[in-house]
């Protein structure tokens, strides 16, 4: 049994807490959050310093700007950690956290949980095996309308860019299945909610392996397209099971998450659909991530640690900076 502490009682923190409670190989130490009014029938602590019980691993699900100080404090306590994405607020703070973990010999895992989707693992394997030849182009569409209440009376009013909240996931998936991103171009759409924050935009990407891609995004437009809607992974977002990523290669193309595969030769004949079935999750990705975290605590290699997640953060921050200066 691994003794797990959850830090942060927001939406994702409570989901982590419930996953720990339901796991046969975990014992929940409790929840750390300054807001002691959060309703949950578990041991409560206002801060990590109040925790006197032994802890094997901590799940840090606090606001992004607190990830590094909370991670460093946990490392000083000797606690291995799973940190929600993005790994930290800035590259400098992420690097500071990485150095602290090295100094304390603490193992880390970062909550880019989409890597645990069976169909994402399948997509990676298919591209590595060149099922559609060498990847040439990838197109991603993420569009949904967040409710107005999501932005009312909190930091998201002016700082809640979907780049750092949402697209950081898509960037990580592109790094995971296509390759490292070496160049970016970004265009900002006109804000429509009455604030100056980034709401929509278009992004062009160049990959180390020669492939190129584009991402179109918006958090003000209701649509059926986006990873959450396409996979049905988030209980707070309506599922449509529509594709949201299209990849072309030298021998064919495929769309995701349906894993509809097409093969062809040249324009003299129509591309033909190839029978192919998408892989199905044996359990929700958040639970699969927790399974893996327990193994990381024991010494297994992490699927994505702080160092790897810092590369994803670097791309997201570069895009955020380019969009923000456009006014």
> How big a fraction of the residues is strand?
15-25%
The total strand number stands at 14
- Under CATH, the topology of the largest domain can be stated as Dihydrodipicolinate Reductase, domain 2
What is the N-to-C order of secondary-structure elements (H for helix, E for strand)? EHEEEHEHEHEHHEEEHEEEEHH
In brief, what are we looking at here?
The chain is of the alpha/beta class and 327 residues long. It contains 9 helices and 14 strands. The longest helix has 19 residues, at 306-324.
Describe the structure.
- By secondary structure, this protein is of the alpha/beta class.
- It folds into two domains: 2-106, NAD(P)-binding Rossmann-like Domain (Rossmann fold); 115-282 and 314-324, Dihydrodipicolinate Reductase, domain 2.
- It has helices at residues 11-22, 67-76, 91-104, 118-128, 156-159, 162-177, 227-231, 285-298, 306-324; strands at residues 2-7, 26-32, 44-45, 57-60, 80-84, 108-111, 135-143, 181-188, 200-207, 212-218, 245-249, 252-256, 260-263, 272-274.
- The strands form two sheets. It has an eight-stranded mixed β-sheet with strand order 8-9-10-7-11-12-13-14, with helices on one face. Strands 3-2-1-4-5-6 form a six-stranded parallel β-sheet, sandwiched between helices.
- The longest helix has 19 residues, at 306-324.
- The protein is globular, with a radius of gyration of 20 Å.
- The mean pLDDT is 95.
Give a quick set of tags describing it.
alpha/beta, globular, Rossmann fold, 9 helices, Dihydrodipicolinate Reductase, domain 2, six-stranded parallel beta sheet, 2 domains
């Amino acid at each position: 049994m691994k003794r797990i502490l959850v830090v942060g009682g927001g939406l994702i923190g409570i989901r982590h807490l419930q996953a720990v409670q339901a796991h046969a190989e975990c014992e929940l130490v409790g929840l750390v959050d300054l807001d002691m009014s959060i309703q949950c029938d578990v041991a409560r602590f206002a801060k990590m310093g109040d925790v006197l019980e032994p802890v094997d691993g901590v799940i840090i699900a606090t606001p992004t700007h607190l990830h590094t100080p909370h991670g460093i404090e946990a490392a000083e306590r000797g606690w291995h950690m799973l940190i929600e994405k993005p790994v930290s607020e800035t590259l400098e703070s992420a690097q500071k956290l990485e150095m602290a973990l090295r100094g304390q010999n603490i193992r880390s895992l970062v909550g880019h949980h989409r890597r645990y989707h069976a169909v994402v693992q399948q997509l990676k394997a298919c591209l590595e095996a060149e099922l559609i030849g060498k990847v040439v182009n990838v197109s991603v569409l993420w569009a949904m309308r967040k409710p107005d209440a999501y932005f009312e009376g909190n930091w998201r009013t002016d700082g809640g860019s979907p780049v750092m909240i949402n697209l950081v996931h898509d960037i990580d998936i592109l790094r995971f299945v296509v390759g490292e991103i070496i160049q970016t171009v970004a265009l900002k759409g006109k804000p429509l909610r009455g604030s100056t924050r980034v709401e929509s935009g278009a992004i062009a990407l160049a990959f180390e392996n020669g492939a190129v891609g584009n991402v179109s995004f918006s958090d003000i437009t209701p649509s059926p397209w986006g990873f959450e809607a396409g996979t049905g992974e988030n209980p707070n977002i309506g599922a449509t099971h529509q594709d949201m990523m299209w990849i072309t290669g030298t021998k064919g193309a495929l769309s995701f998450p349906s894993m509809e595969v097409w093969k062809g030769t040249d324009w003299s004949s129509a591309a033909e659909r190839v029978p192919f079935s998408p892989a199905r999750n044996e359990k929700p990705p958040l639970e699969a991530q927790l399974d893996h975290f327990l193994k990381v605590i024991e010494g297994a290699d992490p699927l994505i640690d702080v160092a790897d997640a810092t590369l994803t953060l670097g791309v997201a921050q570069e895009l955020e900076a380019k969009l923000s200066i456009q006014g």
